[in-house]
Amino acid sequence: MTTAPSAQPDFDWDIFCCVVDNFGDIGVTWRLARQLAQEGYVPTHGSGTKAGHGPTHDSGTKVRLWVDDLASFARICPGLDPALDGQWIEGIYVQRWHDTVPPNIVPARVVIEAFACELPAPFVQAMAEQSPPPCWINLEYLSAEAWVEDCHGLASPQRVGKLSLNKYFFFPGFTPRTGGLLCEQGLIAAREQWQQDEAGLAAYWASLGLPPQAENELRISLFTYESAALGTLVQSWSQGATPITLLLPLGRSLRDVLTGAGLANTIPTAQAGDLLHSGHLTIKLLPMTDQAGYDRLLWSCDLNLVRGEDSFVRAQWAARPFLWHIYPQDDLAHIAKLDDFLDHYLADLPPQAAQWLRAFNQALNHGQDVRELWAQWPQFGTIWQQHARSWSQKLLADGDLVTRLVKFLESRI
Ligand code: TRH
After folding, report:
1. In a domain? residue 402
2. Does the Cβ of 25 fall within 6 Å of ligand 1?
3. d(CA 401, CA 314)
């Protein structure tokens, strides 16, 4: 990492991220920024974008990521210095986003506002005055709702003084008529290699202070919000006959998990590295790692409980069974969104397995007792595992999000 040079290069991509809460907003934009730089997508006026060759930013693609909360960002990017206004990290220029923008700012050729965060007015003015103007994309939250297909790619004309700019809505999604899902080139091959490498897996578990996985043991990761369902699930794991090791990054689910395991007394002193026991359940508390480290955890487990947007997508690339704790909304809008996703996810499963999985996801999200649902894991675990693999392949059939974004820009720039 280096501090900001006084003169900055012209950027190919500007990405703006306002951290609402948690890690999803920065998680998605940081991932997008790195993929654009590493895969070398350079937008060029007149000829759309061209993909660079080679996996490094040697291709010259320059991405600037504007972030308003560097402390949250540093939790998933340990090399970042939250005290700096500007810094290069992993080939991306990270710019602290204040109320004001640096004078004489030159917008990049493509400007992505993530999740409808409002761009600074002077920056928009500079965009409007640029000739030709940048292509302006509003990257939306992921949703499986049907209306997304109708809105994906729509232009929204913006008045800027006497000038006018189009802003385009870009919706990630699960169908060919949406923007797809973020997935770096080479990710699936890396996952395959990881999951087939027994010695490597043993070394990974050892790095976490754990023995190799026993024949009849389950390893489960859990990164969710608070839910009363967690206590009942953990109780089942503790009292069941199958040995289970739970990998638990420290965070919002800690209290529910430890209480359910009858270990509430350990909550005040719990820290990363702790190894706790309750019946047949072992709990390993983990620090938050960078995103690549979290991927490796997902790839290594038999079941992953995930949340929000980005960990939910990564669990799908892990090709392992997962339960989704969706980001809760006040008016319960999230429950309909969960159902819309499950309509896609469960479509190819036999009806009994599909019903069970729908009920399990709903119970987790409604905070209900899931002990009876967990009891059916032996019946459906294998088919779920097979399904997780084919689902991961099916999702990529029409291309990942960056491939679709680049195609979209080719028709717009
Ligand atoms: O943190 P989240 O709850 O983020 C949410 C959602 O994105 C939601 O849609 C949004 O509206 C809200 O924030 C504001 O869950 P999500 O999306 O899974 O993001 C977590 C990120 O943290 C993801 O990029 C993975 C990353 N992560 C690590 O890098 N290391 C870790 O050890 C762990 C556990 C997670």
Report:
1. yes
2. yes
3. 13
Indicate whether residue 24 lines ligand 1 (CB < 6 A): yes
Cα–Cα distance for residue pair 284/247, rounded to 1 Å: 5
User: Residue 30 domain-assigned?
Assistant: yes
Q: Is the pLDDT of residue 106 over 90?
A: yes
**pLDDT at residue 47 greater than cutoff 60:** no
Residue 6 is assigned to a structural domain of this protein: no
Q: Which residue has the higher pLDDT, 20 or 207?
A: 207
What is the signed CA dihedral for 297, 302, 308, 313, rounded to 10 degrees?
80
Ligand 1: does its nearest atom lie under 6 Å from the Cβ of 21?
yes
Residue 133 beta carbon below 6 angstroms from any ligand 1 atom? no
Structural domain range at position 368: 187-394
> Which tokens is 224 given?
């969710």
Instruction: Please tell me whether residues 319 and 402 are part of one structural domain.
Output: no
Which DSSP state fits 145?
-
Same structural domain, 173 and 203: no
Q: Do 404 and 389 lie in a common domain?
A: no
Instruction: Specify which residues 307 forms β-bridges with.
Output: 325
Side-chain-facing half-sphere of 48: CA atoms under 13 Å: 13
Q: 2 in a domain, yes or no?
A: no
Distance 357 CA to ligand 1 centre (A): 23
Ligand 1 centroid from CA 137, angstroms: 22
Q: Residue 252 has what pLDDT?
A: 97
CA of 51 from ligand 1 middle (Å) equals 28
Residues recorded for the chain: 413
Active-site residue 369, yes or no? no
Going from the Cα of 224 to the center of ligand 1, the distance in angstroms, rounded, reads 9
Answer yes or no: do 218 and 232 share one domain. Answer: yes
Q: Which of 12, 113, 295, 309 is catalytic?
A: 309
Annotated active-site residue in 12, 14, 25, 68: 25
Active site residue 309: yes
Query: pLDDT digit string (tens) for 131-140?
Result: 999 999 999 9
pLDDT tens across 241-271, in order?
999 999 999 999 999 999 999 999 999 999 9
Q: Which is more confidently placed, 48 or 338?
A: 338
Pair (284, 361) in one structural domain: yes
How many separate domains does the chain show?
2
In short, whether 307's Cβ falls inside 6 Å of ligand 1 is yes
pLDDT of res. 53: 35
Pocket test for ligand 1, best of 18, 72, 311 (most atoms within 8 A of CB): 311
The whole-number pLDDT of residue 337 equals: 97
Same domain, 150 and 274: no
Residues 174 and 298 grouped into a single domain: no
- CB of 19 closer than 8 Å to CB of 26: yes
Q: Which amino acid is at 237?
A: W
